[in-house]
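Appendix B. Raw example, untouched.
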Amino acid sequence: MNETQIIDVGREAIFVALKIAGGPMLAALVVGIIISIFQALTQIQEQTLTFVPKIFVIFISVLLMMPFMLGTLETFVRSLADRIIAIQ
């Protein structure tokens, strides 16, 4: 395996990690912005008001996106296994 192939595998791994984590992170970002606007309008500065809804939304989004996440990870692992087999 040469340097180009190693860099390619690393790039794919980073892209897969971003695809898997992107959905829940985007959901948490949207909820965080909504809560921040709500806090700015009502001047309620309670710290738990930001964490509890974000945790709930992240949990729900991970449950809903689990088939996509597992499919993406499975495809990546299979391509990695194919590359390992091709080395020998």
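End of appendix B.
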